[in-house]
Design a protein that fits this description.
This protein is 15% helix and 39% strand. The protein contains two helices and ten strands; from the N terminus they run E-H-E-E-H-E-E-E-E-E-E-E.
């Protein structure tokens, strides 16, 4: 299951999320490796599940996008990618991943979310401001890098969710 929703939060909420993710708490500790030896590194902001604002945001996500499921938040964090910083195909922990895209974005900047069967890209969700993507954690996925002419930080806010 891969679903996406647009215009998820109010413009005020989107501005607040973007502002909170601008805090100087990022580390260059994101990324991973795959079997062929390719390693990617990108920016990471961990521990947001302890932040009152993001806990409140998760409650809203539960009500609107996880109706009827008894769920708990396992982790919440943000990933940040600059030009040339691509993710690698991986699965997630928990049962459901929700990604939120806060940046004002132009499609030609790249940075889209790719889903894979391990060999080919099977689905692409374009990065778009105020878009939420919900998917099962066992689906291989990765974020492609922003193009070299993009000089900012492509951010995604991740909620890792366990179904009780």
């Amino acid at each position: 299951m891969v679903e996406h929703y647009d215009s998820v939060f109010t413009s005020k909420q989107n501005e607040e999320i973007h502002k909170l993710l601008q805090r100087p708490q990022w580390s260059f500790a994101g990324g991973g490796s795959i079997e062929d030896g390719f390693t990617s590194f990108f920016w990471h902001l961990d521990g947001l599940e302890k932040d009152v604002y993001f806990l409140h945001l998760f409650k809203e996500i539960q009500e609107r996008f996880l109706q009827g499921k008894d769920t708990e938040l396992v982790r919440c964090y943000a990933n940040g990618q600059t030009a040339g910083q691509s993710g690698v195909p991986h699965t997630d922990d928990g049962d459901i991943t929700i990604l939120y895209f806060p940046n004002n974005w132009k499609g030609y900047w790249g940075g889209h979310l790719n889903f894979s069967d391990g060999k080919d890209i099977t689905k692409v969700i374009e990065y778009k401001q105020n878009r939420l993507v919900k998917f099962d954690t066992n689906i291989l996925h990765y974020a492609s890098a922003p193009v070299m002419t993009f000089f900012g930080l492509r951010m995604s806010l991740a909620f890792k969710i366990k179904v009780k």
